[in-house]
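Assess this one:

_____
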Amino acid sequence: MPKVTRRGGGAALPFKRRLFERIVNAAVHAAAPAGVPVTVKMRVGIDDEHHTYLAAGRDGGRRRGGLGGLHARTAAQRYSGQADWSAIARLRDACPPSCPCWGNGDVFSAAIARR
């Protein structure tokens, strides 16, 4: 939502790397006693000039929680155009094996999900 990203929230949050890391670390720390894993779902970035997913993925590998999911579009795209599945592959390759990640976008059937 533009009203959220304009104020630095939502898909814009990973652009503020220190704040993003503090928030995720606090969630991981709070969930640890219960053994609850923490995941983050994010977008590729704010727009085509501000991609944040790879840096956030690498940072996620240093945390005890997993990264989580990548919606393979920018916030500016919303749900238009095609999801960039190659971004999901780049994220998978950038994250250590201990930091699982998955992607979504344009998955309309079980066959597509398997692919």
User: Anything to note?
Assistant: The CA atoms of residues 83 and 106 lie 6 Å apart. The mean pLDDT is 84. The helical segments are 2-5, 17-31, 53-61, 85-94, 110-114.
